[in-house]
Amino acid sequence: MKLYEHRFTEYYHKYVVFEADDLTDLLKEEIRVSDRDCYALCSSYIAPDGFLEFNVLAIGNDWDSCTKGLRFNKMLGIFTADQVCEKEMRVIEPSMRMIEKNFRFLLEKDAEVDEDLLQVRLDARLDPVRDLFYPDHVLTGLIKGPFYREYEMRVTGIKGPFLAGFLNEEPQEEIDVHEDDPLWALPCYIGTEFRLLALFAGERMSKEEKEIMDQILQVSDRYGIDFKGVSIKN
Prior knowledge:
alpha+beta; five-stranded antiparallel β-sheet; five-stranded mixed barrel; 5 helices; 11 strands; 19% helix; elongated
């Protein structure tokens, strides 16, 4: 299967081997690359700009022998998601050396990331609505009066039972919600299909909306409910 055919949580922070072909030539400054070194052992992380990237731990000449360079503490290079999205990929069980090499690298990459956002990235429910290249961007339904449309939301964390973030594009309709406005969304199911619905949106909520939101937050806090432990069905 190719990268784009996998769900995000199947490979995020895990260990994968790509049939990378000539992409391994990009690593020649760090390691000697032969014509047969067409496979790359990688893990993955989300860069500060939100883009999905794959750190290269080692290379090799087939699926099962990607160990060349594994002894080095330094990564051999970085592949971006657009470079490997069409590449064949296999998720593998890591050796202890793979884990040791990758641990400090990922720890450093995630050091400044909010803990709630890290948890959201591991939430498999969101995989069907994630952007392949920017996994913190998720499709979210927006209702304003007679209008309903799904827009991209840039997730920043969790607020009680809500997934919190900002609208990542300007709505096509003439509504009082704009790009970079805050959104608070709940998970829902349309039949068996997972979706997100923005229950509150925009910089200027009405007094009634604020009161309803405060009540929801108070109840969720009282019963220990947050986004990771709640869903609604229509």
